[in-house]
Amino acid sequence: IRCWSNIPFITVPLSRAHGKSFAHRSELKHAKRIVVKLGSAVVTRGDECGLALGRLASIVEQVSMLQNQGREMMIVTSGAVAFGKQRLRHEILLSQSVRQALHSGQSQLKDMAIPVLEARACAAAGQSGLMALYEAMFTQYSICAAQILVTNLDFHDEQKRRNLNGTLHELLRMNIVPIINTNDAVVPPPEPNSDLQGVNVISVKDNDSLAARLAVEMKTDLLIVLSDVEGLFDSPPGSDDAKLIDIFYPGDQQSVTFGTKSRVGMGGMEAKVKAALWALQGGTSVVIANGTHPKISGHVITDIVEGKKVGTFFSEVKPAGPTVEQQAEMARAGGRTLAALQPEQRAEIIYRLADLLTDQREEILLANKKDLEEAENKGRLALPLLKRLSLSTSKLNSLAIGLRQIAASSQDSVGRVIRRTRIAKDLDLEQVTVPIGVLLVIFESRPDCLPQVSALAIASGNGLLLKGGKEAAHSNQILHCLTQEALSIHGVRDAVQLVNTREEVEDLCHLDKLIDLIIPRGSSQLVRNIQKAAKGIPVMGHSEGICHVYVDTDASVEKVTRIIRDSKCEYPAACNALETLLIHRDLLRTPLFDQIIDMLRVEQVKIHAGPRFASYLTFSPSEVKSLRTEYGDLECCIEVVDSVQEAVEHIHKYGSSHTDVIITDNEKTAEFFLQHVDSACVFWNASTRFSDGYRFGLGAEVGISTSRIHARGPVGIEGLLTTKWLLRGDNHVVSDFSEHGSMKYLHESLPLPQRNAN
Q: What does it do (predicted)?
């Protein structure tokens, strides 16, 4: 129970002890009392005459949603002057002789001179209309709003200050949203020397300073300042090198160059920053963001409260390490240096990492044991994910072997000439392989992924950002340290970065100017979320691994049981494990079918019956809920088909284009299956589990792609390369090749350089 204005009430769990601002964005979700400041550019239309009604309605909707969650919302709003200007212009036009307007035509009406309108008069005319608009909008959400007009004098008079404080507390107690504005109808011009003077004094000379003053007076948790720019930039927005500042710390003002103020309103960005820092000193967290952008204004306030990376967050706590943006820039610079190394030097780094995996085995397994114990104690991981989290001596040995394969095969990966053409005499064109740039690999519960992906990035000369799951934090940390130790032998330690900040995956997916490719490795839900969140960055991967095995009438008993057992039971959590078994109808009630069922029962595989399979049985297993299911465990679906053609159609309809298998001794049937199934990997008489970069001889893989562009199937070094064109000439110009020019195109194919036999 807390007492405000002598009236006790029960606080909701969102409340917290005031005094210190939030240190991280992720904590903003705990904000209970919030002030939203709406700048003039947010509230008014582009012509500065009238309100942006759609934008305002969206803001009211977001504030209402947060209010109905149990938060205490307050709005500091501009807009009275603009609304009043619209009303007064209309009145002036009407008063300039209605008859003249009616008889002189619309064109003359438009040309009528409208006198310059005094701002105080506009404010007086607009305040009532602005408040009526807010009341009408909030009523749609069953929320009451109340208007409070203040001036600077109200904060200097102690009695008025107490009255204002009590009024606001009383309104909040009654679940009313206070709408606060400076009383521009009577407010005097600001005194030139009454600027920010420490924690105890702030001059209310615009709505930025008013919002900051109210936020501190009311002990609010969060102040959201909405303007017409994305946030605070290190130089004026629009300049070539301007970068949005994600987190701003007290003392960073020297690193910022302020531009001109907003197109409307009293304050510019410098005023906002000063007000924000004053509020921060008073214990209120602050975010400055764009409230006018049509793509984000509909959810900007709720996104901020949810801790998403929107605008500039003001924090008193500087992180121990670099920001993720700085890490991405370091990875880009390190990747370019890495690509410039000799192939033997890159291979040497990977060989060194392979050695470290075996030399430091005990330390790695000890860190992994901590992760496993924490996961088991918290009970937050399912058994398949626990299996993926676990490392062992045999896993580390296999990793080391795979890394050495990558090193051996990477000798001519970067800079390899794949096409040479003589365009004309002394004008030769080459197409050569180059790194993609900066890769972001996001992975869950699989620490063995870190050295694999790092080795592939090193071999292909790419910078790398790694974002692992919290459940593998200890394992990832030591494996990353070993990776950087290996990179250090040639001075490219920064090429591989592990993101350890509180960065949300969705926020990472928005760094389109820093990241060139995202590769998710984890659950189908993770992949789908990343594909949805990625803004302007291509995503390589697959959302599901619904792999099929089709047993044909000409299949032999020995092959069928071995391949099915291996495909389903060897590692059921893998994305290349069997999920749906297709049986030819003629095999039902045969010894072969009985052996398949017996083997699955022995292996404790839970069987789900497809609709057709269930129709043949008197007592069938549980009917499958969906034929498009990835179980990731000792479960599978069995369905019946009439032919290989029907099997292909079923795979195309319900599969995920990952890996599909036919078991048959009929070569013609097998070739039909191989040619017609449109998946990344299609096998004949082989387990689905062969769909793997290491087993393909790629050394390792960054993932399996079901995309149809660039790379498909297990993605090794080749899938992490793109190309560029090199043209070598001697004073060549296009005009020489015109109809009356002196030169002719040859377009002759030239032999490629001899590849490294090693």
A: Bifunctional enzyme that converts glutamate to glutamate 5-semialdehyde, an intermediate in the biosynthesis of proline, ornithine and arginine.
Question: Biggest alpha carbon distance in the chain?
Answer: 101
Specify whether the CB–CB gap between 248 and 318 falls below 8 A: no
CATH superfamily to which 25-91+118-187+200-314 belongs? Acetylglutamate kinase-like (3.40.1160.10)
CA dist list (Å): 288 to 60, 124, 342, 347, 723: 18, 29, 47, 47, 41
pLDDT at position 88 over 60: yes
pLDDT class for 115, splitting at 50, 70, 90?
A: low
Domain 548-701 has CATH 3.40.309.10: yes
Task: Return the CATH fold of 324-533.
Answer: Aldehyde Dehydrogenase; Chain A, domain 1 (3.40.605)
Per-residue pLDDT at 6 exceeds 70: no
Residues 427-461 have pLDDT tens digits of 999 999 999 999 999 988 889 999 999 999 999 99
Q: What is the pLDDT at residue 544?
A: 83
Residue 701 has pLDDT above 90, yes or no: no
Helices of type H across 630-742: 644-654, 667-676
Packed helices 393-409 and 449-460: angle between N→C axes, nearest 10 degrees? 10
Beta strands 144-150; 176-182: pairing state = parallel
| For helices 343-359 and 361-378, angle between their N-to-C axes, nearest 10 degrees | 70
Q: How far apart are CA 368 and CA 389, in angstroms?
A: 8
Do the beta carbons of residue 152 and residue 187 sit within 8 Å? yes
Question: What values do phi and psi take at 420, rounded to 5?
Answer: -130, 135
